[in-house]
UniProtKB/TrEMBL annotation:
Protein name as it appears in the record: Arsenate reductase
Taxonomic lineage from the root: Bacteria, Pseudomonadati, Pseudomonadota, Alphaproteobacteria, Rhodospirillales
Superkingdom of the organism of origin: Bacteria
Pfam families per record: ArsC
InterPro entries for the chain: Arsenate_reductase-like, Thioredoxin-like_sf
Source organism of this protein record: Thalassospira indica
Family named by the database record: Belongs to the ArsC family.
Length: 117
């Protein structure tokens, strides 16, 4: 089963869910707002994909962060994961978890490859 992390009212997350459903790939949505997200999970994502990929610096959630939090995000590690856990809307969406691999952002080509389509 593929887990799609994001926010249910995000257009890109909705588009992602429709894509997986259309391909017949079993999936579930993990909504950051409703279900939360723990810092350990985010820290593992940061180790795997790096902050430049995971952090959405273009959105209002990032712009609304304080300078100290932004500096912490630049440093990475557990402290950055804690900031993201407290502000999950700063995470670029969707994060798609295939079990052994994660992707960030909308990427039909990569998903097809990982799903063996």
């Amino acid at each position: 089963m593929v887990t799609i992390y994001g926010i249910k009212n995000c257009d890109t997350v909705r588009k992602t869910l429709k894509w997986f459903e259309a391909k017949g790939i079993e999936n579930k949505l993990h909504d950051f707002r409703a279900d939360g997200i723990d810092a350990k999970t985010i820290e593992a994502w940061l180790d795997e994909v790096r902050g430049k990929v995971l952090i959405n610096k273009r959105g209002p959630s990032y712009r609304n962060l304080g300078d100290d939090d932004k500096a912490t995000l630049e440093q990475g590690g557990a402290a950055a994961a804690a900031v993201l856990a407290a502000n999950p809307t700063v995470i670029k969406r969707p994060v798609v978890d295939f079990g052994s691999t994660r992707t960030v952002a909308y990427d039909e080509e990569r998903w097809s490859e990982l799903a063996g389509l």
